[in-house]
UniProtKB/TrEMBL annotation, chain A:
Protein name: ABC transporter permease
Key word Membrane present: yes
Key words of the record: Membrane, Transmembrane, Transmembrane helix
Positions of transmembrane segments: 19-35, 41-60, 87-107, 113-135, 193-213
Membrane recorded as keyword: yes
From TrEMBL, chain B:
Annotated GO MF terms: ATP binding; ATP hydrolysis activity
PROSITE patterns to which the protein is assigned, alphabetical: ABC_TRANSPORTER_2
Name of protein: ABC transporter ATP-binding protein
Keywords associated with the record: ATP-binding, Nucleotide-binding
Biased composition (Basic and acidic residues): 23-37
Pfam (any one): ABC_tran
Disordered: annotated segments: 22-44
TrEMBL record, chain C:
Originating organism: Kribbella albertanoniae
Domain of life: Bacteria
Name of the molecule in the record: PadR family transcriptional regulator
Sequence ranges assigned to domain Transcription regulator PadR N-terminal in this UniProt record: 18-89
Any coiled-coil regions, as ranges: none
PANTHER family with a match to the protein in the record: PADR-FAMILY TRANSCRIPTIONAL REGULATOR, TRANSCRIPTIONAL REGULATOR RV3488
Length: 226, 274, 118
């Protein structure tokens, strides 16, 4: 069942050509805008990947809402539906992250290159459930896209050292970026990892619980024989 | 091309469009042509216009519905006892009762806004009733009014997905789906995603998906909107076939024709605010 | 009696009539049409007759055979299968029941009418 949902979601994503082009182009635009400073370029690339994947996740979940509801009514497991959609989105996101990792490896001189992979990967792992969680709270794609825009704008504008920034989902990217570019910059990799793990787990749990609550039909008793 | 050949060509094409297997369409066309020659008549004279004749022939060769339900006839598949729905102080409907058995059709009728779709959602289990008891068999099929198909997926991909839910093999799901489509006079072309099908054809896909698992109870929310006249008749034909095949069918409709054929009528009235 | 009503009725009973004609002897399409007319029905259009024959063939009650003709093009002959012969017996029984039901109602109605008038 999960694999069927994964296959279907991947097909749907591949056929949303225009959305896919935007998803690929957005991080590139962010990256090119800051290409002159390595650290900023990488951080903005990660935010761009995160935003793109979150938006793709939002659109996927909003547009598949009715179909998933229908499948759940006739007996599909809500957990399998949520998991299948999420796996497909995460895989797509990781593919995108992989491509951009190659771009960074080719065009930038980075001390800890593997941290860039970590950074892009964690952005995807946070963004996919984040977009799903947002989709559960909003009725339509437009509201969700605006909500994600607000989150991402805050993420870019907030002072990373302020306490408020720690409440934003992609705070960990800055720690990873600093570590990747300048290991002596006082970045705390462990703290970044802990923050990532906490945010990813929270977003995944919210997505799963809210998804299951929304999709699971009420259990109706079987009629007595006559 | 002689008029007789032209007529045959049109018959062949119409039959295929109506979901008849191409080999069978060719055989029927050749037979009709030969038969007219044997009778010494022009085919359009003997059989009438090719398109109209194709509709009758296609109905004649359509394979009979296999038995759907595993339930013994007369078993209760849905029971509503005093079901009501209120939003705040507004009563949508009150005290709706129905006992639907395997091999029966019930129609839910009423004007727009009187809660027909809400009642169906209560039967699906996606909306909670404010009062009353709903009992329902577990193996159901469901066709919503809209949003029940994905515009990005082809019919075959839909069959595989729904087949996976029902634990059917991929191949079995696709062949069953295609067979059910032909019964509604439609032959899915591979590679064409649902968004590129006409509105009526999308609804046929919607209906076929609801019966892929040979359910004991089929719930339908005006799924024939966008059907042309012939398909609309075929739809009711299909509803009666489901019934004869032993399934219980609940259809939400705002059309009052064809209701003499149903076993139960649930009439919802727009209630005043209280 | 209106032609329309007669046609509607024949429509409902066409399968039985065709099975009965074929039980007597095998025949081709035009022959069946002529025999229906001889039995007192209106001429049945080919657009109605042939789909009925196709349906009976699909149901396995009728089989077909192309027979070359000395005078013109070959003809398609229809004949009952074993299942077809069984179906004829079955449907004749059903028809008698049905006819008796309609008959009893019409007789009652006629009697009531006669009493009211008389």
């Amino acid at each position: 069942m999960v694999s069927a949902v994964v296959a279907v979601t991947l097909r749907e994503l591949l056929r949303r050509r225009r959305a896919l082009v935007l998803v690929v182009a957005l991080p590139l635009a962010f990256y090119l805008a800051r290409i002159d400073t390595t650290g900023q370029a990488i951080r903005f690339l990660a935010l761009g990947v995160g935003w793109a994947v979150a938006t793709l996740s939002l659109f996927t979940h909003v547009s598949s809402r009715d179909l998933d509801q229908r499948l759940a009514i006739v007996g599909a497991s809500p957990s399998a539906l949520v998991a299948g959609r999420q796996l497909a989105l995460t895989a797509t996101g990781l593919g995108l992250a992989g491509a951009y990792f190659a771009l960074v490896a080719l065009t930038q001189d980075v001390t800890h290159l593997w941290t860039v992979a970590l950074l892009l990967g964690t952005s995807v792992l946070i963004a996919a459930p984040l977009g799903a969680a947002v989709s559960l709270l909003v009725p339509r794609e437009l509201e969700g896209a605006l909500a994600l825009l607000s989150i991402m704008a805050l993420q870019m504008l907030a002072d990373p050292d302020g306490t408020g920034a720690k409440f934003l989902p992609l705070w960990s990217t800055r720690e990873f970026t600093t570590y990747a570019v300048d290991p002596s910059g006082g970045a705390d990799l462990t703290q970044g990892l802990l923050h990532f793990a906490a945010v990813a787990a929270l977003a995944a749990v919210i997505t799963w619980i809210a998804g299951v609550l929304r999709l699971r039909p009420r259990r109706l008793p079987v009629p007595s024989t006559r | 091309m002689t008029p007789a050949e032209e007529w045959s060509r049109r018959l062949d094409r119409s039959l295929i469009e109506l979901g008849v297997e191409p080999a069978e369409a060719r055989r029927l066309t050749e037979d009709s042509h030969e038969e007219a020659r044997g009778a010494g008549a022009d085919p359009s004279e003997l059989y009438g216009p090719a398109a109209a004749y194709a509709v009758r022939l296609a109905q004649a060769v359509r394979t009979p519905q296999p038995r759907l339900s595993t339930m013994p006839a007369g078993e209760v598949v849905l029971r509503l006892s005093g079901v009501s729905k209120r939003y705040g102080r507004h009563t949508v409907f009150d005290n709706v009762s129905l006992t639907l058995r395997a091999g029966e059709v019930a129609a839910v009728v009423g004007a727009n806004g009187c809660g027909k779709s809400t009642l169906l959602k209560i039967c699906c289990g996606t909306t909670a009733p404010s009062g009353g008891v709903v009992e329902r068999t577990a193996r159901i099929g469901y066709a919503p009014q809209q949003g029940g198909v994905s515009g990005f997926l082809t019919p075959a991909e839909h069959f595989r997905l729904f087949g996976a839910v029902h634990g059917m093999g991929r191949r079995k799901a696709v062949s069953t789906g295609n067979q059910l489509c032909r019964r509604l006079g439609w032959r899915p072309r591979s590679g064409l995603s649902a968004a590129r099908l006409s509105g009526g054809t999308q609804q046929k896909l919607n209906v076929v998906l609801s019966e892929l698992n040979s359910p004991d109870l089929i719930l339908l929310d005006e799924p024939y909107q966008g059907f042309d006249q012939d398909s609309y008749l075929d739809f009711w034909d299909q509803v009666l076939k489901w019934r004869d095949a032993g399934a219980g069918v609940l259809v939400v409709t705002h059309l009052l024709q064809d209701l003499e054929r149903v076993d139960h009528l649930v009439e919802l009235h727009r209630s005043e605010d209280q | 009696m209106s032609v329309n009503l007669r046609q509607q009725w024949l429509h409902g009973f066409l399968d039985v009539c065709l099975l009965c004609l074929l039980a007597e002897r095998r025949d081709y399409g035009l022959g069946l049409t002529q025999r229906l007319v001889a039995a007192g029905f209106d001429e049945i259009p080919g657009g109605t007759l042939y789909p009925s024959l196709v349906r009976l063939e699909k149901q396995g009650l009728v089989e077909t055979d192309w027979v070359p003709s000395a005078t013109g093009p070959r003809r398609k002959y229809y004949d009952l299968t074993a299942a077809g012969h069984e179906a004829v017996a079955d449907r004749i029984g059903s028809w008698h029941q049905f006819r008796d039901s309609v008959e009893s109602l019409t007789v009652q109605a006629q009697r009531a009418r006669a009493e009211r008038l008389g």
